What does this fold into?
Amino acid sequence: MPDTLDPDRIVAERYVTVRAAGQELSVTFAPFGSTVPADRETVVRLLPRARTLLADFAAVRERATEYLWDWGAEGEETEEEKAAFLRDVLPSALTVADGAGTEVHYENIGEEYMLDGYWPVVHHDAGLNPVRVTVEA
It folds into this structure.
């Protein structure tokens, strides 16, 4: 992957779009406990973790999407429905935050799964284990 994770560009534009695991993904950086975009110092500190996440994004995406399925499933879905969800629902953004926080956003999930204007976010702990889902608007 070419180094599109230039700290000055990220700070100026507030995010960067990269290719990871065969898809385009917006990447943002945030200070601990904040939704305010990161300053250059924070971005530089988080870049090694971001590069690791992006290098292994296929596995990160798979775990997050499976967790999202389990969170939203009602128990009556077929294996075919689950397979289609896991294949077709792709995250649109990744937030790397201070304090080992990682968020995988599914902004383009579609009205079949979420009301229009809402999208799920899978939050991960420091070990990259999905731990909860929130719904954003």
The longest helix spans residues 40-55. The chain has four helices and six strands. The first strand starts at residue 16 and ends at 20. The mean pLDDT is 92.
